[in-house]
Amino acid sequence: MKKIIFTEKAPKAIGPYSQAVEINGTLYISGQVPVIPETGKIPEGIKEQTEQVMKNIGAILDAAGYTYDNVVKSTCLLSDMDNFQAMNEVYGNFYKENPPARAAYGVVKLPLGVLVEIETIAVK
Predict the structure, then answer these.
(1) 38-60: per-residue pLDDT in tens?
(2) Nearest one of 121, 105, 20 to 73, comparing CA atoms
(3) Distance of CA 54 to CAs 1, 83, 88, 96, 116, Å?
(4) Which residues pair with 15 in a beta bridge?
(5) What is the spatial distance between Cα 54 and Cα 118, in angstroms, rounded to a whole number?
(6) Whether CATH 3.30.1330.40 fits 3-123
(7) pLDDT beneath 70: ranges in the chain
(8) Which pTM was predicted?
(9) What is the SS3 assignment for 76?
């Protein structure tokens, strides 16, 4: 049976979707954008935005009883592939050992005009 995960420590969904869904020991986290949940603001710069996205993912992982160590797959969406290296530097700080599988794509545009969005799958 699926369980809907929600936390005030991550941005509320801006559409008809859940922050995350857990089913059979697997957590599917919707694409997270760099909205600061307390203020609704978006930081400037790719490094700052990636840091906020990863904090939002961490808050959802925590709310569901998971950690970054449980993450098995991430998909990174970038509004400009020229930001790949800077995003990668920050992203790597959250997965120092045994990083998850990952894909990264350049896209035309992201919600709210952000520079990065990351979706995540974690397994217990």
Answers:
(1) 999 999 999 999 999 999 999 99
(2) 121
(3) 27, 16, 12, 14, 11
(4) none
(5) 8
(6) yes
(7) none
(8) 0.97
(9) strand
Q: What does each C-alpha distance from 94 to 28, 41, 54, 62 come to in angstroms?
A: 18, 22, 8, 14
Contact between 10 and 32 under an 8 Å Cβ cutoff? The reply is yes
Instruction: Tell me if residue 45 falls in helix, strand or coil.
Output: coil
- The amino acid at residue 102 is R
Long-range residue pairs from 54-58, CB within 8 A, at least 24 positions apart, any chain: 54/90, 54/91, 54/93, 54/94, 54/118, 56/10, 56/11, 56/32, 57/10, 57/29, 57/32, 57/118, 57/120, 58/94
Tokens of 87: 């995003």
Give the pair of three-digit tokens for residue 73.
């797959």
Token duo for residue 122: 């974690």
Residue whose C-alpha is closest to residue 10's, from 28, 36, 30, 48: 36
Please give the structure tokens belonging to residue 66.
């998971």
